[in-house]
What we know:
This protein is of the alpha+beta class. It folds into two domains: 13-70 and 186-352, 3-hydroxy-3-methylglutaryl-coenzyme A Reductase, Chain A, domain 2, CATH 3.90.770; 73-165, Hydroxymethylglutaryl-CoA reductase, class I/II, NAD/NADP-binding domain (Alpha-Beta Plaits). Helix content is 42%, strand content 24%. It contains 13 helices and nine strands. It has helices at residues 24-27, 46-57, 84-96, 98-108, 140-156, 179-183, 197-204, 208-226, 236-246, 254-257, 292-300, 311-335, 340-352, and strands spanning 13-22, 33-40, 64-80, 113-122, 125-133, 162-165, 186-195, 261-267, 270-280. Strands 1, 2, 3, 4, 5, 6, 7, 8 and 9 form a nine-stranded mixed β-sheet that branches. Helix 4 (98-108) packs across helix 5 (140-156). The longest helix is centred in the last third of the chain and has 25 residues, at 311-335.
Amino acid sequence: MINTETFATEVPTRWVGPLRVSGDAVARGLSHTEVSVPLATYETPLWPSVGRGASISREIEGGIRTTVVDERMTRSVLFVTEAAVVANHGAGVIAERFAELQQVVSAGSKHARLIEAHPEVVGNLLFIRFAFKTGDASGHNMVTNASDALMQRILSWNIGLSYGSISGNFCSDKKATAVNGILGRGRNVVAEILLPHEVVHRRLRTTSRELTDLVIRKNLVGSTIAGALRSSNAHYANMLLAFYMATGQDAANIVEGSQGITYAEDREEGLYFSCTLPHLIVGTVGNGKHLSQIDDALEKLGCRENREPGENSSRLAALIAATVLCGEQSLLAAQTNPGELMATQLLMERKEQPGK
Length: 356
């Protein structure tokens, strides 16, 4: 007999920070704000690593600057036709009647809004990648429900299309693909900071030139020869998973969420360092957000305020991007010095495990 009892799995969680963060999504009307962040992880050295980046951010006027570039959620549907000419004609009709499709979505949902229908014809197959605004929800179920209604309406037009699938993998959900970075999925956020050379030397124990060289050689060149797909970073997935688990996100979305680019420049005034995360799939409402510890975490993060739809989730995404920058910067700095990374890991793990 299958046991259907629900139980909790313990994951060590610690609040780290505070981080000093600026940008409209987190500090509207203020020069900056300071926020501590929850990280749930078994890799406990992550806490002091992010903590170092957070501490450094508090030495900088404005701290970590965040910019939310775009936000949307997608679902691609698949139609089957007799021939490519029919599929191409269908794509044209869908474009012509786009306003009608927008009304279908608005009539069936309080929050979903259709903003784009991107076609792709492959032989006799027609893929339509619908993009939606979904308010403060990550929107997985919302866009699937809306796409179901859109398919029904399109099929009712009798233009030679037949049902293929509600999801055609052109979305692209929980898979490392190029399309999400090109056309957008989730929240596209950039976090950046400018550190004076003195701070780089004193706090990161390296130089702007050494760290910039490592970003180029490791993240850009190393990732390229490894065959990375629109991804050039050291360990975004570590911070993302820890933040996702602590705030009730769908953890599988770190697959596409961790596709991002770390960029650095050795400038006259200091080290410019940025992390671009083009597809963060996060929400502040929906499955899991009702749990007491998750609700408490979102409350402490300032993501339970009475704001316009989507603004709480944009705040959350910006805080996640800032956290990623803290951990990325700290790890890369350690890797510029021979032996530092492993020595630090061993020291931290022994502190966390009594008797070793």
